[in-house]
Amino acid sequence: MENNPSAPDELRGLLRELQRHQLELEMQNRELQEAQQALEESRNRYMELYDFAPMACVSLDAKACIQDLNLTGAGLLGQDRTHLQGMPFTPFVDPADLGRFFAHVRQCIDGETVSTELRLRIARRRIEVRLHSAPLEDGRLPGRMCRTAIIDITELRQMQVRLSMSERLAVVGTLAAGIAHEVNNPLAFLMGSLSLASHALRAPAPATVDTELLALTRHHTGATQALEALSHAQAGAERIQDIVKDLGTFARPSTSQGHGVDVEQVLELALKMATVEIRHRAHVVRDYEQVPEVVADSVRLGQVFLNLLVNAAQAIPEGMASRHEIRVRLRNSDEGVLVQFQDTGEGIAPDVLEHIFDPFFTTKRLGQGLGLGLAISHSLVAQMNGSISVESTPGRGSTFTVQLPASSAPREA
């Protein structure tokens, strides 16, 4: 070094180079710290959004055990988050829906994004929820997980039930005048028969008639007339009872689950209820095949059929019943059972047809309908795992088709 005059310059150069590298390392270190801080802040913001999201979020493993959940999810399940982690989710599922829940988790773990509606039981309270699940790869845990968003739809379902009830009562209200007429006829017949029976039993005896002969005659005449009149009165009373029973069937709400239902029986009940609306507009043509029972709720299915029959009748002008028809078809199909309502009414314009199942959409005058009948019918059929569609030609009528799943149980004769 002492013999090399350029050595100090090389040392100074090396020192400057080292200082520059040190500065670069400090800058990189500062950038890394800032990036780490930003990442931490971002993670904290994500965790805040995740924890306080308006919907419950839970991560399930292949055994449906809770691996992670947000605070909203812990609040929904009513327990502390640390206590819930590692627990199976199944104690919170309604026993009747366990099969669907396990199938949902299995599909998600297999890589599908799935959505299912089921019921949960939490602290003796039953709520209806919709599960939206997507598969999640988490490096911290072996295997794939199921990240699930839980949406409480209990209030939505209650609102749908209230709307359904309102529409059902609106349809019954439409038929009220005709039903009153239907009740008045057998009621008048009942009152007349009772009056005849009373008169036959209480008629005074002429003074010149022998008492024993009168008793014998009254036994063979008056009593017979009274019994006949009372029999007619009973028939009238039974008719009134049937009308009231039919009305009550469609007016009361239903909470029963889907089971095997005889479609033809429900159709006939709906046709009986709609007779007053149809009578002066069209004649009914029944075109039935022998079909299996369907998985449905009889009251809700009856409401759907009644809505479609009343709509078909109202599409036909009054006073030309001999020229118009409403054809009701009952057919077997690959998917189950097909029910069709075909009318020869005004038909539906193409721009109206695309909105026909929209809530509150109606072409009727103000005060004649809420525009909920077809929307609720569409919703009810969907809840029964069926479908409803419409085809129409303006001026030539419309055809509404209801597709329903057949019951696996054999139909009783």
TrEMBL record:
Q: Which residues form a coiled coil?
A: 11-49
Catalytic activity annotated for this protein?
A: ATP + protein L-histidine = ADP + protein N-phospho-L-histidine
Domain of life from the UniProt record: Bacteria
Which CDD domains does UniProt cross-reference here?
A: HisKA
Biased composition, class Polar residues, residue ranges: 392-406
InterPro entries registered for this protein in UniProt: HATPase_C_sf (IPR036890), HATPase_dom (IPR003594), His_kinase_dom (IPR005467), HisK_dim/P_dom (IPR003661), HisK_dim/P_sf (IPR036097), PAS (IPR000014), PAS-like_dom_sf (IPR035965), PAS_4 (IPR013656)
Q: Which UniProt keywords apply?
A: Coiled coil, Phosphoprotein
**Cross-referenced SUPFAM superfamilies:** ATPase domain of HSP90 chaperone/DNA topoisomerase II/histidine kinase, Homodimeric domain of signal transducing histidine kinase, PYP-like sensor domain (PAS domain)
Renumbered to this chain, region (Disordered) spans: 392-413
User: Looking at the Swiss-Prot or TrEMBL record, what is one Pfam family this protein matches?
Assistant: HATPase_c
Keyword Phosphoprotein listed? The answer is yes
An example molecular function term from Gene Ontology annotations: phosphorelay sensor kinase activity
The enzyme's E.C. designation: 2.7.13.3
Record-annotated Histidine kinase domain positions: 178-408
Q: What is the protein name for this chain? A: histidine kinase
